[in-house]
Amino acid sequence: MKKQLVVALTLAISSFSFAQKKELKNAEKAIKNNNYAEAKAALSEAEGLMSSMDDKLKSKYYYLKAASLYAGGNGSNPDIKTALGDLENVTADYQTEAAELKTQMVQNFLTKGNDAYEKKDYSTSSKYFENAYRASTKDTLYLYYAAATAVSVQEYDRALTLYEELNTLGYEGVETQFVATNKESGEVETFDDQNMRDLSVKAGTHIKPSTQKTDSKRPEIIKNIALIYISNGENEKAEAAMEEARKENPDDLNLLMSQANLYFKMGKTDKFKSAIEEAAAKDPNNPELQFNLGVVAQESEDLEAAEKYYKKAIELDPTYLNAEINLAALILGRETAIVEEMNGLGNSSADNKRYDELKEERTQVYKSAVPYLENVLKQDPDNLEVTKTLMNIYSALGDTAKFKAMKAKVDELSKG
Predict the structure, then answer these.
(1) Over the stretch 161-210, which tens digit does the pLDDT of each residue have?
(2) Phi, psi dihedral angles at 177 (to 5 degrees)
């Protein structure tokens, strides 16, 4: 009886082993014939026998499952992610086959990713680049491409995840470039490799061969992390990321301006002013920086400094309308104190004399503001607020002709 039981158990084990091998063989045959649906069905049958498989059969199962889900490059994105996970379970027995499949995957993902990129389908392109990285994690450049293209279509949450992964990996993205100067054009050209460059120099078409390193992409990555945090309203995280980015590249003016804008959004006026002053020192001929310094000074009620910065911005860029509008508003703001003093005067001869002096001061205030407002209107003729302001000033100055012209323009713009 015991012998019969042992024989029965042996037969059962043999039948299990036969079933496992049969289903895997059927799946393998279906994959070779590009019949991936049939392969999946066979593998589904084999899955129920997994617990009794040895390591070699399990490796074969995971390899074949990955191949069926990949479907020769036609698998869905969720299936491809599952396939990449299955390939991680393949052990020594099928590692060669798994490596070959991964190589095919990478080539396919990159081709499709580039095609989608050329068609400006950045969302699809990003997913293919990410898959290429998952299939070949040594190629972190693909992960960088995935993050950058995700940002292009404002898929910020996904881009943030990818950028943070790059940051954790310490990705630099520094590349060695082989360059030489084209003799005919005088342009510096980059070659795919050193051999191609050296051959061109030897042929006499190029001169001055050299090797150079590209800038690190790390500051850009951290900056983008910070900017995404800003767009998500996570200002404290953004500030920490921006500070890290500045440490990485303290001379990056764009990075400094991004940091200044963050401080402005957070209401940290002192830090904003400090950042703008640092930026202005680095780029003294930048009208936007001078304008921002004017805004900070005006908000701090340092009106003399504000006027100086606004005038500098206009000097650097005579078409800087916001600087002219703010400067005109700053000048007209002086009227308030003049009118208050006028209203507080009595009827004595001294008061009447002071009244006339103040009236002349107010006239000069109006006249000082007019050139800036007129210049704004030349460049922005449909600006209703500026037109109304000029109309009121001309009325106060007694310039009837210009008052009527501005009134007619106000009426016309108000209809629109």
Answers:
(1) 999 999 999 898 888 899 999 998 999 999 988 999 999 999 999 999 99
(2) -115, 140
Least Cα distance to 61 among 87, 37, 29, 79 occurs for 87
**CA distances in angstroms from 68 to 27, 65, 107, 163, listed in the order given:** 8, 5, 17, 31
How many whole angstroms separate alpha carbon 148 and alpha carbon 133? Answer: 14
N-term to C-term CA, the chain: 104
Average pLDDT value for residue range 392-416: 91
In 3D space, the residue among 15, 94, 3 whose CA is nearest the CA of residue 52 turns out to be 15
Q: How far apart are CA 312 and CA 306, in angstroms?
A: 10
Q: Is the pTM of this model over 0.90?
A: no
φ, ψ of residue 315 to 5 degrees: the values are -60, -40
Predicted confidence band of residue 406 (pLDDT cuts 50, 70, 90): very high
Q: Sorting pLDDT into bands at 50, 70 and 90, what band is 416?
A: low
289, HSE (Cβ side, Cα atoms, 13 Å)? 19
* pLDDT in the model for residue 52: 67
Both tokens of residue 256?
């400094």
pLDDT tens string 370-379: 999 999 999 9
DSSP class of 216 = P
Q: How far apart are CA 362 and CA 317, in angstroms?
A: 28
Taking the C-alpha atoms of 277, 281, 283 and 289 in order, what is their torsion angle to the nearest 10 degrees?
20
Q: Residues for the chain: how many in total?
A: 416
Q: List, as one string, the DSSP characters of 100-154.
A: HHHHHHHHHHHHHHHHHHHTT-HHHHHHHHHHHHHH-TT-HHHHHHHHHHHHHTT
Q: How far apart are CA 197 and CA 109, in angstroms?
A: 29
Query: Shortest CA distance to 124 belongs to which of 135, 132, 113?
Result: 113
Considering just the CA atoms, what is the radius of gyration of the chain in Å? 36
Is the predicted pLDDT of residue 3 greater than 70, yes or no? no
The SS3 of residue 285 is coil
Closest CA relative to residue 389, chosen from 378, 401, 374, 368: 374
Q: What gap in Å lies between CA 219 and CA 226, rounded to an integer?
A: 11
Q: Are 365 and 338 in contact (CB under 8 A)?
A: yes
The CA-atom distances, in angstroms, between 40 and each of 67, 83, 328, 382 are: 10, 12, 74, 67
